[in-house]
Design a protein that fits this description.
The structure holds two protein chains of two kinds. Chain A is built from 19 helices and 29 strands. By secondary structure, chain A is an alpha+beta fold. Chain A is globular and about 90 Å long. By secondary structure, chain B is of the alpha+beta class.
Amino acid sequence: MTDFSVVGKPVLKVDSLSLACGSARYTADYEMRDPLYLAFAYSPVAHGDIVSLDDSEARGMEGVTDVFHAFNTETELFTTAGQGYPEPSPYDTRLFNKRVRYAGEIVAAVLAGTLSEARAAAAAVKVEYAPLPTLFDPEKAMDKDSPSLHGEDGAYAPLPVPFRAEENVAGEVLFSFGDMEKGFADADFIVDETYRTHYTAHCALEPHAASAFFDEKGRLVIVASTQVPFHARRTVSRVVGIPAHMIRVIKPRIGGGFGSKQEIILELYAALAAWKYKRNVKAEMSRSEVFTAARTRHPMRVRIKTGVKNDGSITALDMSDVMNTGAYGAHALTVLSNAGSKVLPMFNKIENMNFVGRAVYTNLPIGGAYRGYGATQGYFAFNQHMDGIARRLGVDFLDFVKKHHIREGETSEVFKAIGEGTEGVSQIIRSCKLSECIDKGAEAIGWSNLRGKKIANGPVVKGIGAAVSMQGSGIPQVDMASASMKMNDDGSFNLYVGATDIGTGSDTILSQIAAETLNVPLEMILILSSDTDLTPFDTGAYASSTTYVSGQAVLRCAEKVRSQILSVAEKMTGAAPESLVFKESRVVNTATGEETSFSDIACFAMYSHDQFQIQASASFTGSESPPPFMAQFAEVDVDTETGKVRVVKFVSVGDCGQPLNPKLVEGQIEGATMNGISYALTEQYIFNSKGKMTNNSFWDYKLFGTLDMPEMKTIVVDSDEPTGPYGAKSISEIGINGPAPAIANAIYDAVGVRIYDLPLTPEKVLKAIRARTDG
Amino acid sequence: MKGSFLVNGRTNEWTFEPDATLLDVLRANGHPEVHRGCDEGVCGSCSVLLEGKLVNSCQVFAASAMEKDILTVAGIGTIHEPHPIQTAFVESGAVQCGFCTPAAILATLALLRKNPNPTDEEIHSALDGNYCRCTGYVKIIEAVRLASRRMSSHD
């Protein structure tokens, strides 16, 4: 391993003390003079045309400034998805739609002097709806007799990608290689199974918030809980009609995102109201609003049909996905793409492969970006399916995976086949330690002692299961990050990055990269991130991009600064460049032993001859997207009398290249894993027959707490990604992919039943056990 | 209505609505370190110590907290002089987005005051009212253990 001084060390997260002491500020904490408050009225019907809207009572109520709705506020079609431009998501919504498409859709926004006045007036907005036939079953969305949700409103895709509103198709991904017919004909047996994943929410603890105020020059400043400050400025400008140069977006500390804040929602309404009245405006969602007015994880039906030979080789694989994007198509195409593009390269030796994916509209809450981004849904099916095939072959699942998984020096046709709304980018895997991950995890979970043993303690039976996954590191040839840097006269450096730290620790690891490159202690890097006025551009915190893409931008920027330091040192000392080396905040002349401090170099540049400030900027776009790999293992106890599944121990072993900060890497894996376990077992949206979510509260939507925790073990294997900054790949998303299938596979190991639908509730497990016993 | 609130050792006279919660009043009067995560008494992001007891301030009427001793995370240590629990959270990597952190630190303080050497079961039980979506709790539990070790060795 390379010997680093700052990178690879568990240095303290640079913002953590301020967070622990309560001095750090989140969006809703920003104090502003005399603000007005926004509150929203929501549609109670899942599908209908607004026939009339009577805001007269609301307008007459105390403190009310205005009521915005479809009959007084027209906007163009747009997408709330915060993605590159033009977005791969369809333009299918407006700030206020005259046709509502799910129960919980915003129909009016009330601006008032206090939050309680705004909320009271929002409740007084009277809306009359002409109900339309509803569509709740995504698998019926393309039926001829199903209502078309977006067929009449001019919705369109801004990129040349498949979009067929009349058929409720918000996105479509098709690819095929090899000869499927021959592949299946060559098989000794064919396994054809269908899996379904469910609606869930991110549950970042900070609810979405946006505050809009005016600076002394009359420009609009939006402080927002966002993962995408630059996309937010662009979208606000376009939708609300404010020149972009009049908008500044600031990302303060963010209380978690997980994809939920890759969406531009409250920023738009706050900007609309603030700009109209030239008043400061605050908007903040309640927890129940976050569940229904913000975004969700797209539910997916994944069908996999696989042809297998008795020797264990796979002759063909056909994956067919129907993804429910809900009422609007935010991230529809790209989450769907990732269910194929992040999953199918895993078994790259399959010569005949077909993928048919469709994202379809329904009258249910809106899907969006969520950690794992389609890979989570795809891997739930893939890992169970392969566990079943391995069992049928009579081979160990882990051996089966090791036989088939992609390895260093190899590629997959899938990389080229699927991109983000375009063709993909071909790449060769340069780092893959998945087999090591599998071996280390098997040892940590006690695979050989527990697998297939069905150890029983009364009615409780133990089982273990595993799952593997890969993700990506940014969107190749799409995601772009920039950084700039200047050197101060004490030898410290200001580092400005567009990259968006939403709690992930990116401010820390980007500072580590700069410190390593410049041979200075971490505290000499003063980072400022995500302010559209002050920092350069970055696409934002998504697609597992920050470490790899933003990290390379910082590395390149710091290298430029380094070479400027060197040339000033040459000028100062008259030394030959080859005799100068960097050493802890100074440049040393190896010929003479003379040392020149960074402070002296900076002062010389600023105050002596040919003055200039040592400073640089750099941008980076990845030409490939090296995937991190992970193997995850669950030990579960299944109560055969109640169906309850308790995860006793969970092991995650990851390959993220060189971990830039081991503690932060572990934290990402542990957080994603726990979210994944909770997703697998207890979290779910429950809808009534009219499509209304009935459990939009933390009382009724169960997140795991400390008493629910299994024993957790996290291992990071030695790895090095040659294209990454200091050998790093991503780690933020991947850990959420394995828990659900690993637990499902462990349930099968314990009691011999396969649960095809998430979540893995006691009811489903018990029903399956009884059906098996009865059958 | 008007009332007197004793927050972090300082007495304040504040005006508030009769139905305002303690969370509303603290946030409106310069204590944004108390966070609103759900406003429904589940997530624990708004936890404060009221007369030494951990409460969800979103579930406490401000009027009932008048004249009582209220402690927020800003009252136990500052960025220049942090409390050992605050440094334990930082050093353990227990702080990711940080939104739950002030409350989790207060839950830890409440636990360690009562029970300086808690078992793992007692730690899990004491922190169960404080949701965290970032860490998976692993490093929060480690932070509580570390704080316990350090604080008992100081005593």
